[in-house]
Amino acid sequence: MDKEEPMQPQADVEHLQKIARMMRYHILAATTHAGSGHPTSSLSATELMAGLFFGGFFRYDPDNPDHPNNDRLIFSKGHAAPLFYALWVAAGALDGERYDNNYRKMGSPLEGHPTVAYKYVEAATGSLGQGLSIGVGEALNAKYLDKLPYVTYILLGDSEMAEGSQWEAMEIAAHYKLDNLIGVLDVNRLGQRGETMYGWNLEVYEKRIRAFGWETILVDGHSFPEVLEAYKKAGRVADKPTMIIAKTIKGKGVSKVENKNGWHGKALKQDDFEAAVKELGDIDMSVRGQIAPPQDLRPERPQPGPVDEPHYPADKPVPTRNAYGNALKRLYPKFPAIVSLDGEVSNSTRAEYFKEAYPQRFFEMYIAEQNMVGAALGLAQRGQIPFVSTFAAFLTRAFDQIRMSRYSDPNIKFVGSHAGVSIGQDGPSQMGLEDLAMMRTVLDSVVLYPCDAYSGERLVEEAAQHQGIVYIRTTRAGTPILYGPEEAFPIGGCKVLRQSDQDVATVVTAGITVFEALKACDELKENGVNIRVIDLYSVKPVDEATLKDAARETKAIITVEDHYAEGGLGEAVKSALAATPTPVYSLAVRKKPQSGKPQELLDYEDISQRAIVARVKDLG
Amino acid sequence: MDKEEPMQPQADVEHLQKIARMMRYHILAATTHAGSGHPTSSLSATELMAGLFFGGFFRYDPDNPDHPNNDRLIFSKGHAAPLFYALWVAAGALDGERYDNNYRKMGSPLEGHPTVAYKYVEAATGSLGQGLSIGVGEALNAKYLDKLPYVTYILLGDSEMAEGSQWEAMEIAAHYKLDNLIGVLDVNRLGQRGETMYGWNLEVYEKRIRAFGWETILVDGHSFPEVLEAYKKAGRVADKPTMIIAKTIKGKGVSKVENKNGWHGKALKQDDFEAAVKELGDIDMSVRGQIAPPQDLRPERPQPGPVDEPHYPADKPVPTRNAYGNALKRLYPKFPAIVSLDGEVSNSTRAEYFKEAYPQRFFEMYIAEQNMVGAALGLAQRGQIPFVSTFAAFLTRAFDQIRMSRYSDPNIKFVGSHAGVSIGQDGPSQMGLEDLAMMRTVLDSVVLYPCDAYSGERLVEEAAQHQGIVYIRTTRAGTPILYGPEEAFPIGGCKVLRQSDQDVATVVTAGITVFEALKACDELKENGVNIRVIDLYSVKPVDEATLKDAARETKAIITVEDHYAEGGLGEAVKSALAATPTPVYSLAVRKKPQSGKPQELLDYEDISQRAIVARVKDLG
Question: What is the distance between the alpha carbons of residues B575 and A540, in angstroms, rounded to a whole number?
Answer without folding.
Answer: 17
